[in-house]
Amino acid sequence: MGSAVRTQHTWAPAAAPGRRSRGQGRAASFAVASAPAARPVRCRCRAMERRPPTVRTVTIPFADLKKRDKDLGDRIEEGLGPRGLGIISIASVPGFPELRKSLLRLAPRIASLPEDVKKQLEDPDSRYNFGWSHGKEKLESGKLDTFKGSFYANPVFDVPTTDNVLVSRYPSYCRPNIWPNGHLPELEIAFKALGKLMLEVGLMLAHHCDHYVMRQGLGASDGESLEKTIAHSRCHKGRLLYYFPRQFSKQTGEGGSVSSWCGWHTDHGSLTGLTSGLFTKNSVEIPCPDNAAGLYIRTRDNQVVKVVFDEDQLAYQIGETTEILSRGYLCATPHCVQAPSSEDSSNVDRSTFALFMQPDWDEKLQFPSEIPYHQELIPPNGTLTFGEYSERLVNKYYQATP
Fold this sequence. Notes:
25% helix; alpha+beta; five-stranded mixed β-sheet; single chain; disordered N terminus; ten-stranded mixed β-sheet
């Protein structure tokens, strides 16, 4: 993993021929979905009379993924293309099931550390993007999110840079990791092991995504490929999530939102690796106690579906930056998490892990003239580094001036 190559990153000099402009804003960017038919729902996914349908992810065997000359274009398009759900799963990844359980079992343990210890693991200067974070983010309602706690770290670089100017400018990416080695030393080992495996598999998937995009009539790439951009980056961020038991989650069953455990959002990086959730009740591992609980995705035609994949499969979702730079041939979709609300859900918690793979902070991104997201953040010449773009995006969500 070297330093980033400072090149303009784009797959094509112009939008793909024959593609219809998708307009501005998130809602206007949705195309027709290939998911099974679902009942239309309101934009913000409020109360639904019928439960959304359940859809399995498109799956690629790891044995096929690791073959660089294997044609996986149909699978990539079905799962990640303009008519897909923006998510795909990889089956039979060697060592993954063991590494998943080793890390996810530590999530309740870090959440139960003494408050003074967790306070020492906080990093407010990074906007709580390193170390422990709880109750710092806001839900759709505007209230602080106390439903889940997170532990953030870079699984590849403990110290991404020693340049103090960069540390001050991009603290969410450049500050050093904080590990609870005096209280939970096994966390660092398990976190890095799973994070590096997910990055390795993500690079394989990115290679096939590059081939798929280049075969859509976009011409030769005049910038870094998705695979090389991810490989060169020092910005990758792992997030170990712990969802606290929701004794009051029956409000979801009484007509509440499917985003009761995690609000609707779209990842803004390149590619996100995701494990399935691990549920426990009173410290005992159990199957999910409620079929309605889990990951939900809003499709390209603004429908909502529940998405499932096997616990021994590794899933990947497309981020906004990749959708923009691929001219929409790879698509990001909004997603959320619903808490269990059945009678058996009392004292149930959930642990999971996400790896956000994204360009380096100084990677130059050449944006197309028409983009579906955050158009107001892009300068007239269409060029920003990923660090600059991220700063503007964070400031937008913090209601500050870009």
